[in-house]
Amino acid sequence: MEPAAYGHRRVYKASVNGARTGHARTATRRTILDAVLRVCVYILLWMFALAIIYPLVWMIYASLKTNAELFSNTWGLPTDPQWSNWSLAWSQGVGQFVLNSAIVTAGSIAGVVTVSAWAAYALSRFRFPLRDIVFLLLIGGMMLAPQVALIPLFRLLNNLHLYNTYWGLIILYVSFRIPFTVFLMRAYMLGLPHEMEESAVVDGATHWQIFWLVIVPLSKPIIVSAALLQALFSWNEFLFALTFLQDQSMKTLPIGLQDLQSRVLTNWPVLLSGMSIAALPMIVLFVCAQGRFVRGLADGWGK
Known about the structure:
Layout: H1 4-62, H2 67-72, H3 84-125, H4 131-139, H5 150-159, H6 166-189, H7 195-202, H8 207-218, H9 220-236, H10 239-244, H11 253-264, H12 268-288, H13 290-302
Helix pairs in contact: 1-12, 3-6, 3-9, 3-11, 3-12, 6-9, 6-13, 7-8, 9-13, 11-12
């Protein structure tokens, strides 16, 4: 007859082995489930990527076809690439439209980033009366729809002699994008450490020097993100450019491509060439700066 203690040890070992087996089975099931979910997520991401990339790729190789080949072989590759379509689109005014958009985009990026960075620095680092109210009023500008302000803005720009000028369009782009950019930059700057600023103050640095030598280098990711978002907005903006630019030589890409469509009539490869030329700068810009863009945007929203 087995001693009682030995019997208890056998029962204890059996229970421990059973618990380990149960944990192992649970861990195996969890590992399998995680792998299945990961595969499903990858499939969905690839589907989304394909849905976004394929139209761009099709637009580029369709622009290299003749008009007849575009309709007879819509989905196939061009048999004899017609690079002359791109040069024809460029000579039809796309080159000037690209230059106009580049001027307006560069000016609006410089204005938005500079003003928003200073405002975000003040709102995140200084304490002054009604600071929170000022911030709420500032971000309240995000609720203002551009459509309802067209008539007052038209009168204002006309009285200031800024109608049909690059400066008028740049000022509008800067004004309407400052609230969102300040909101994004302020959230990022709130998470920056204060130790380096305190050390700079001890060394006798002014607020101007602290901003340029400490805050700006630490805020490069969010500055890049804000600049890219502003570039995308300015490059593709349609309503303000249509309303406040009149001369053909000053039209930006969205308005210029609409005008190009009316001039080339049914020559769709030339129109697709112009659209490809318009899309390539933004694609290259985002590909080159995607790392800092994602990091800055994630940190800005997450803080």
